[in-house]
Design goal:
It contains 14 helices and 10 strands. It is an alpha/beta fold.
Length: 367
């Protein structure tokens, strides 16, 4: 396929056709630049400072000037936060709208207090002051912004994950990781109740977002971390009992609101036991393809799932010598791109990556 524009290139890839070159992504879910890395690249390119798109995370900047310079194929649409709900300082302690207490020091954000740590019954979960979508976000003017981007650019448009944390991630934040993982085993009614509340909030947030941008986007992002370097954070059986039903319902709503968009799912680590389940609940694009994790062998992933998934990410050696990075980019393209179904990007957010390496990765993909 010759002479694609950005959107055509991405859609061909999602359709498992080979475009003119592999699409490249950056500054999305798990492909952003940690702030200090972003500042270094921004200054290297001689760009003026701009405000952050969000606060309270380690990666807060989205800069389309950089995406233009690197000829990135995707552009994000963000669901704007209501400033009254997100009183997050540039440094120091803060409480987020979910009631979770954090402390930020420079590039590091650490969880300090989980409001549901001591719950032992569903009634205590019900009593938590759960946030409401319209108190957290506003979609005012967003539909027109999405329409203009769709009509006036040729980029693939993405509904950027508005909640960041998935069901397991958020439950561990609210209850504490050890406490929630224990609850799955010894207090299943509490764990189920917590996930049920999260599902209600998440459905309302995505409905608010996709009612505005759904007709215009080619991809919708969701995320939840279920893997470590060596295996699953929870057993496949627990995933299927507690998490998968909620994902199926949320992803069903996303399909209803944006039926032509690919569903992007971020999930770190060694997750091969549940990749068929992710496909079953409707995942089209799997990220970040952490090939250093146990069992995440590129050739086997492509052979086993390449006809049903688009692989997104996979580049891990970003901070090493440029010649090694370029060789990794070429190897990933050689394995994942035949027959379409591959978007090249960093494997998770870029931290302490020299500007020259980021530019070299994008250049190697274009070549």
């Amino acid at each position: 396929m010759r002479g694609c524009n950005h959107r055509q290139r991405v859609l061909a890839t999602f359709a498992h056709q080979e475009p003119d070159r592999v699409p490249v992504d950056m500054m999305g879910n798990a492909s952003m630049l940690v702030d200090q890395t972003y500042f270094a690249l921004r200054d290297h390119l001689g760009l003026k400072p701009i405000p952050p798109i969000r606060r309270g995370t380690t990666a807060n900047y989205y800069d389309e000037r950089i995406l233009d310079r690197l000829d990135i194929d995707f552009r994000r649409l963000f669901l704007p936060e209501r400033s009254s709900a997100w009183q997050i300082p540039a440094d120091g302690p803060y409480t987020d709208p979910w009631g979770v207490r954090y402390d930020r020091h420079g590039p590091f954000v650490n969880l300090m207090e989980s409001p549901l740590r001591d719950v032992i019954a569903p009634d205590q979960v019900h009593a938590h002051p759960w946030p409401r979508a319209r108190d957290l976000f506003t979609a005012d003017g967003l539909a027109e912004k999405a329409r203009r981007k769709y009509d006036e650019t040729d980029h693939a448009l993405v509904a950027r994950n508005p909640v960041t944390a998935g069901f397991l991630d958020r439950a561990c934040q609210l209850m504490g990781a050890a406490e929630f993982l224990s609850a799955l085993a010894v207090m299943p009614e509490v764990a189920s109740c917590l996930i049920e509340h999260l599902l209600g909030v998440y459905k309302d947030i995505y409905a608010l977002f996709l009612d505005a941008v759904g007709p215009y986007v080619q991809m919708v992002e969701v995320a939840d971390d279920l893997g470590t370097q060596q295996g699953m954070l929870i057993s496949p059986a627990m995933y299927r009992a507690f998490i998968k039903p909620a994902e199926r319902e949320l992803y069903g709503l996303i399909r209803e609101k944006s039926p032509h968009a690919a569903l992007f799912r971020h999930c770190d680590g060694a997750i091969t036991p549940i990749i068929p389940d992710l496909i079953d609940v409707g995942v089209d694009v799997l990220n970040p393809i952490q090939t250093s994790a146990k069992g995440m062998v590129p050739e086997k992933l492509k052979a086993d799932f390449g006809d049903r998934l688009t692989f997104h990410g996979s580049v891990e050696g970003l901070s090493g010598p440029i010649d090694q990075l370029v060789a990794e980019v070429r190897q990933r393209i050689d394995v994942f791109s035949p027959g379409g179904g591959f978007v090249l990007a960093s494997c998770n957010h870029m931290m302490d990556v020299p500007p020259e390496n980021i530019l070299a990765m994008a250049r190697a993909a274009r070549e």
